[in-house]
Every structure is written in C-alpha cells, then in structure tokens.
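Field: sequence (string)
Field: structure_tokens (string)

Example rows 1 and 2, in order.
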Amino acid sequence: MEKFKEIERSIITTYRKEIWSRFVKAVSEYKLIEENDNIMVCISGGKDSFLLAKLIQELINHGKFPFKAHFVSMNPGYNKENLKLIKKNAEKLNIPLEIFESKIFDTVYNIDQNPCYLCARMRRGYLYSKAKELGCNKIALGHHFNDVIETTLLSMFYGSECKTMMPKLHSDNFPGLELIRPMYLIKEDNIINWAKSNELKFLNCACRFTEESSYDESLSKRKEIKNLIKELKKTNPNIDDNIFTSMSNVNLNCILEYKLENKKYNFLDRYE
C-alpha cells in the first residue's frame, strides 16, 4: 500500500474517534461545508493545515454530497529549505498543491511596530484575493480546539473581552466569501499523535523574524496561555473542555454588559 493511503486510512481507523468523528461533527453541527461549495483550503506547511487537507479530501471522496476544493499555499518569502519541505509533504500526502508568491516577509521585515499584526493582515488579504480568483465561496483554515480555547482566554486576560474564535464568519471586505474552521473540535494532542505515528515532519514556524532574531517564543502571550492551561489540567483534566463549553453556555442574566451587532446592552436596561 502506498504511504499516503496508509496515512489516509489511519485518519478513519486509528484516529476515527479523536480526529475524523470530531471533524465530521464540526462540519455538520456548524454547517461549515455544504453541497456544491467551492473551498480554498489554506496550507501553511504545518501539521494542522496538512491534516485539514487530508480531511477535506476524505470528505470529497466519501461524503454524502458533492463539493470542490483547491489546496493552496501562499509563499510569503520562505527560505528554500522550508519551501522544499512543504512541497515534499504535499507530494507524500498526495495533495495537489498550488503555491503562489506574495513577498510579504520583504514588506514587513523592516517594520518596527507590530510587524506580526501587519503580516497577518496582509496574509489574509492575499488569501481572500486568491480565493476570489479561484471562484471559491469559502476559505478553510486549520485552527483547532486548542486555538479556540487559547483565544478565549487571551481575549479575557489581555483584551478585556469575553469572546471566542468562531467556527465560521463572513468576510467584511470580500462579499460572498466565508471563512470556515472544520478542525474546530479536534484537539492538538491528537493531531501531534497522528503526525508522529505516520512519521510525518512538518514546518513548526517559518517566520523570518524567529529565524533571524533572538525572539523567544516563551515570551509570547499565546505560549503563556498554552502553558497555563497545561498546568491547570494537572488538577482539573476537564479544564479545556470547560473553557470551550462556557462559550456555548453564556447566562445573559449574569452579564454586566454585552454587545450585539455593535450595540451595547447593560443589565440595568432590563433590571426592575
């Protein structure tokens, strides 16, 4: 059996409960993929986006309704080794990958203030433009369960907001385009286990700033939150699930203020 077929089989056998079933549940529960969708699957080169590509392929081949997918990777200025690894993994996993250039790293490299923010915005713009060019109505990203709960705590601790990463959302600047996150319910540990068991090596971080500076990842806020959750799980193994569920179990009777469609409501508005 070819290697990529073994990898595909592992998703629906060995990791059926942890990965495939959670993927199918998210797609169904949040109505992420529907009949005749034309989806651009974004592949950054990491484990998450490559697994997403394989899950989408599996759904196309064995799902209950027809839809199309384009597997796209944007090259913002990766070094030759990183780009080579992305191409090698796409070939190994039997993913028909299209790579397009953007030169984003060159643009933001000499920016002193918030280069990561600018880079992220530019990436998003290029990806949306590419999706429109391909005639897609949806863009699929590889964010997973841990990204969701980390974003939830980041918003509370550093943004003074109670909000989470949504499973899908409409684009404000590109009408008709929708961003979806089909791996919304899949936990990162299971993605790591899937990659290791299939002896797959993916890009971790290909950012030029981390390659050419003394940037310490342990200083990042997301890393801080990730470590906090890991520590809390030692005494409460269900803490991650509780954080996730809390965003579906909001009691507005016990909220001081909340926003809905940019309008703010105060508990005093209905207090008697």
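Row 2 begins here:
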Amino acid sequence: MKVKLKSTVDTKTKLENLCAWLAEKKARNLVAFELGGHNNLAEGVIVAGATSLRHGQGLADFALEMAKENNYEFLHMEGYQNGLWILLDFNDVLLNIFQPEQRELYRLEDLYPNATILRDDRE
C-alpha cells in the first residue's frame, strides 16, 4: 500500500470522488477499479474516455483542480500535450484519460481481471 502524503481519504472514496468529478464534465465510459493489493503501482485505477483533445485536457484540468481543493496527493502527469492518453498519478490512484482509438488499442480494463469494479459506465 502506498503511504498517504497529505490526504487521509481512503482509496475507495478517492476513486468515487474522482469518478463523480469526471462524470460532471461528461467523461465517457468511466470504469473504476479497486485493486486491493493486487498491484504495487496503485491501489485504484480509473479509465475514462474523452471526445476530443480539448475534452481530455479539460477532464485532466478539472480533476487536478478538484484534487487540489480536496488535498489529494498529485505526483505526476504524462501525455497532456498530445491528449491521446493522459495519465495522472494521484499517489494511490492512477487516472487514465483516453481518446477512443487509444483506449481500444491499450484496453487497460483487461489488465485487472481480479480487481473489484467500483464503477462501470461502458456503453
């Protein structure tokens, strides 16, 4: 389990909050997994879809803004400029924002067959 740096919010609550914020900004096909110790990289993973480069960047910006307001740890972001796959590392939760083609190509949802699914809004 990752050590909490600032926030005392448990992983499940953080996953639920991030999903709610993403849904508020019209993220598509949201899926959230609680890994429960099955992965050394994170305790939870969110996969979200965006409809355009600007939408993906907007989702990332809003997630960062809300995380800051709620004192969630933020460690790093990758892929923001090209917007095809934006990865945000919130210490114990990894948020992946994909354009449709990249999401289909990488199929991250298939990597966690033993994970607990907390949310699945796939169409």
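free_text_note (row 2): The chain has a mean pLDDT of 92.
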